[in-house]
From TrEMBL:
It comes from Asticcacaulis benevestitus DSM 16100 = ATCC BAA-896. Residues 4-227 form the Glycoside-hydrolase family GH114 TIM-barrel domain. This is Glycoside-hydrolase family GH114 TIM-barrel domain-containing protein. Coiled coil: none annotated.
Length: 233
């Protein structure tokens, strides 16, 4: 998978970037847009949440009350999911079917680290590994690449690339050495204000560190709406 990328999940969609990979919303992006991106030589990764319910999604009513835990802090309308639930897996399998039907090259399932958060559910690291492994196997069975989102250190062998938020800010980028060594792309996004403004050369320092580490780092708005974009490539 080519390693230059653009990540946009909200706002008026911009297809003009000369990058190898577009990471876009599975539900909101028309199949025609995906077809157009692929015709232009882009790989298309389709985002969906695999670990939370979102009350605006078309399949939200399929989740039961028992499937859902506590709300995600800072994200209105989302609740953590019980990844042990067979019903949750049925819904996620249908989302993977949708990704294949729309022509996505790969998927980015989000919120796959519930075990490390306060979910209101008794999830363990073993539960997470089992679920993430299942997602990877199901994606591959459909001919889809799959990225590991933020759950640093789990299942390197199962995933084809990684998507990370703020590993520079949290000093966690070194954990991705296993991906880099395996020649698997690591797509990183940073949101901190000094990176946006380049105060004191913060963005320059960030980009030097990212290039040295072999990460594909973008500075983006938290809303991922393409209101600004700075690439370290």
């Amino acid at each position: 998978m080519s390693a230059t990328w653009q990540w946009q999940l909200t706002g008026t969609f911009n297809t003009s970037y000369n990058v190898g990979v577009y990471d876009i919303d599975l539900f909101d992006t028309p199949a025609a847009t995906i077809t157009s991106l692929k015709a232009a030589g882009r790989k298309v990764v389709c985002y969906f949440s695999a670990g939370s319910s979102e009350n605006w999604r078309s399949d939200f009513s399929q989740f039961t009350a028992a499937d859902q835990g506590t709300p995600l802090d800072g994200w209105a309308g989302e609740k953590w999911l019980d990844i042990r639930s067979s019903n949750v897996r049925t819904i996620m399998a249908a989302r993977l079917d949708l990704a294949r039907a729309k022509g996505c090259n790969g998927v980015e399932p989000d919120n796959v680290d519930g075990y490390a958060n306060t979910t209101g559910l008794p999830l363990t690291a073993a539960d997470q590994i089992t679920y993430n492994s299942w997602l990877a196997d199901e994606a591959h069975a459909r001919g889809l690449a799959i990225g590991l989102k933020n759950d640093v250190g789990q299942l390197v062998g199962k995933f084809d690339f990684a998507v990370n938020e703020q590993c520079h800010f949290y000093n966690e980028c070194g954990d991705y050495r296993l991906f880099i060594t395996a020649k698997k792309p690591v797509f990183n996004a940073e949101y901190d204000t000094p990176y946006v403004t380049n105060a004191g050369g913060a963005r320059d320092t960030l980009c030097t560190a990212a290039r040295t580490a072999g990460l594909r780092t973008l500075v983006l708005p938290l809303s991922l709406d393409d209101s600004f974009r700075y690439s370290c490539d």
